[in-house]
Amino acid sequence: MVIENIQRAKRSASIVKILWVARFLQWKHPERMLQLASQLRTNHVDFLVDMIGVGPEYDKIASAIKKMGLENHVHLLGQVSNSTVMEAMRTHDIFCFTSDKNEGWGAVLNEAMSSGCCPVSSIETGSTPYLIKDGVNGLSFDLGKKNDLFDKVLWLIKHPEEREKMSIEAYKTIRDVWSPKNAALQLMSLCENLLNGKDNFVAEGPCSKA
What is the pTM of this model? Predict the structure, then answer.
């Protein structure tokens, strides 16, 4: 995968594609994607929201889409294969991660970033403070602020060049810092430091101080 080629392929699209991948659970807040879609529609944005997954809230969300008249903007794709998820992450522009503090780490954020999909991630999830550098490799938002998700997504839509740069940096964050190879190297460094009575000098990524 050449990240620059992936980003180049997205440039010709006339519509911004937004992705959400999770189980349809209350604490993953799928309803926030409908709120986002409604706000984007009101602002006359050309967009599409694809939501992948199933769960207890699925039927409720499906009904809400019809009630809100969002059928042309929000598509529920149900349960799909992992390869299909990864392909969706490579072809969508923005990835929204809307879970609250009940989300432990949230490996789906790693996957989206490694696919070059620009993340907009809730600050309450376990991984966001470690993976997201605001304005560098994505944006974080506060679930407690009504319009924060919308504001961040709209900014990315209006600034495609900056969005592309963040997408590339998101990919590099996972490739260079949070990769299995680097995790193994930093674990070895941590173990050596502990065995020798030294402080942990891992500055960033796996085995760094929380």
Answer: 0.93
